[in-house]
Amino acid sequence: MNECNIIKFAGYRTAAKLRVLQRFLHMRLGVIAGVFNRHHLQVSENGVTLKYAELEAVLFDIFFAAQRESSSQIDVEQSTDLMINFLQNVFDRKASGSVEVFCVKVVLAVLSSAKLQEKYEYLFRQLADHNNCISSNKLEKILASLVHISVYLNESTAFGFEQIPETVGSCFKQAGTLGITEDIFIGWLLQEPQLLMWLPTLHRMQMGEMVHHTVKCSLCKLYPIVGLRFRCLECLRYNLCQMCFFTGKSNKRHKLQHPVQEYCYETSSCEKFAFLKMIKNKLCGSSCQLQYLSIQPHDVAFET
Q1: Are 112 and 256 in the same domain?
Q2: Fewer CB within 10 A of the terminal residue: the chain, N end or C end?
Q3: Are 192 and 235 members of one domain?
Q4: Same domain, 181 and 242
């Protein structure tokens, strides 16, 4: 994970560190949920703390099940030990000898191979009440568990505990009298609140890892660009591979202050045409809404 520290932007740096671990584990969310149920650790047991021997039994079963259905070779014992060590470092700094079930579920969901919305739905179900809503206290609990991860990864400057109250407030602007519904919760998360922007970034890094873009990096000349691709919104036909972007490289033509567009999949002809039309409208002074979230370099979550 130390190699990820060359990445200039905190959102990508945090995601890259977790991707190192995620790539090693091969966990489906359905398998994770099924094993917890077999160990009688349903939603009602989320507040229970597991001793490390109990935690080891749960994790071993998860990785054993993952091994049986995966085409990849999984060392069950090594994966179990790795995850126990990670959970201990994240949630048990004082060496109490136990970790709360809910915290374990959060970490495993984050590192699973599930789609992003499936992860959000799973997290919501863990704390939803009988009205299928979550309170501000429950949302704080989810956020605190996620922030523990970024703090362990030495990313607390961009994603720290002090940001939780404001983040909760931004979600509860839409709250009803009973709390936040699942639709509001997921819709809010899909807007990528700054405190958690590393989570959807992790998902896009996973999606784009093996994607080949039929363009050349304007700096290092890599062709094709593999992984995430970044297109400058100010420089015409200026593309960066993820390594050049991550390390903040620039030249006389392209400046770090320029906003860029991230692509995690190869664009179609229609999308390329739409992008050129957007650039034309921008140059002509017309208003145009971007189809993708552009990256503004001055954003605190993208600074060292």
Answers
A1: no
A2: C
A3: no
A4: no
Minimum mean pLDDT among 45-59, 66-80, 112-126, 285-299: which range? 285-299
Query: 270 pLDDT band (50/70/90 cuts)?
Result: low
pTM of the model: 0.86
- Tokens 């374990």 sit on residue: 104
Give 60-99 pLDDT, tens digit per residue: 999 999 998 877 788 999 999 999 999 999 999 999 999 9
Domain boundary among 173, 196, 219: 196
For residues 142-156, average pLDDT: 97
Classify residue 127: in a domain, yes or no. Answer: yes
Domain range for 217? 210-302
284 in the same domain as 167: no
